[in-house]
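Recap quiz, item 2
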Amino acid sequence: MEQITENSTKSRILDEALVMFAENGYKGTNLRDLAARLDLSKSALYKHYASKEAIWNALLDRMEAYYGERFGSAEHMPEMPKSCEELLGLTMKMIRFTVYDERIILTRKLLLTEQFHDARVCRLATKHFLGGTQRMFTAIFKEMMADGLLKEDNPEMLAFLFTAPVTSLIQLCTREPERQAEVMAQIEVFVKYFIDNYKK
Amino acid sequence: MEQITENSTKSRILDEALVMFAENGYKGTNLRDLAARLDLSKSALYKHYASKEAIWNALLDRMEAYYGERFGSAEHMPEMPKSCEELLGLTMKMIRFTVYDERIILTRKLLLTEQFHDARVCRLATKHFLGGTQRMFTAIFKEMMADGLLKEDNPEMLAFLFTAPVTSLIQLCTREPERQAEVMAQIEVFVKYFIDNYKK
DNA sequence: CAAAAAGGTGACCATTTGGTCACCTTTATT
DNA sequence: AATAAAGGTGACCAAATGGTCACCTTTTTG
């Protein structure tokens, strides 16, 4: 049966489609350019996907699967930090990854620009910008409170208080990448301030 | 000289353009539909604006002017709250306005969907989602600290801690309007929690 | 009032764009 | 080796779209 292996034409199409959809939006992307970038003729695309929409849907399928395995299951939790210093390190590492990884940057752009035009993107956007990370940090904070590392408080609220500002600044980074360094510094200041404020 | 008065055709075009650009993006908006919605022929549009881009730019001009008079000058500051209860009331009133006003909803959508395609939108987005409100609340918090209503702290950091989560939830409201009621409740919980935490 | 400016219309044009088709080449499959 | 399936190509099509033009009507203005 058909399998979308790494580096198959099918997946190369999705890779490039992600770039173009993220940069120019769904309507702003045309199949001629997409084909050209892959050194293919336009009609060759149709041997792999039935339509532009089919490419779009396949791309969302892949993104959804990625989020499923990353945020959906309990297995994919990071190791629990054993101190506030470790929490700081872990957090900054995750943020750096999210901010610098080209694929995730493109995903974020796509989610932002198409969130009002597609119901699945809408759902994914909420997961990406709010639900996913918040759930993760709720678990972390809950355990750290139980271990006496953080002050007792509502872990869910705390996770939101922590997650939302970081998300805002990451979005700023995505919007104005030339300010990346400056904003990353801001993020670190915030994270330190936050942990300092809630550590026992 | 030409003046864009309220309800002139020129401004009606911009009104409808805002709706369509916000809903379908720049590329997703076509002049035939725009004209039809205004009960005009397409060629009539060209008597008022030289091109699609000219309409777009005029719309951004108007948005920019709006932000200029609303967040740019010191005059447009709300009256300073004289108690934490007043702060709560004032804040919730502002948030409700922002969340429910159709024009602002459309503006927010436009900023989100076009932030990566246009430098001016990029600038405006940062002002809207971060800079503008943060500056305002920095001023408010600073004064309230001086008046002994809030704990001493870095007012700018506090404004950010306050502003960013609210902005996140407002974006959620914009993305999933069917959850508006639920999210507004969340916002109120957050605002109360925040004020409670920092009041003296 | 006459002239001109402003506002409006429908027909038309060129370009872009998603999609199809007949045909070719390479790679399995029996 | 014969056949079929998969992958690829260029020419072509129809629809959509930004923009132009000649022409008409209403409103301003000297």
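Residues 30-32, 42-43, 46, 51-52 of chain A lie near DNA strand C (CB under 10 Å from a C1').
Residues 77 and 147 of chain A are 17 Å apart (CA to CA).
End of item.
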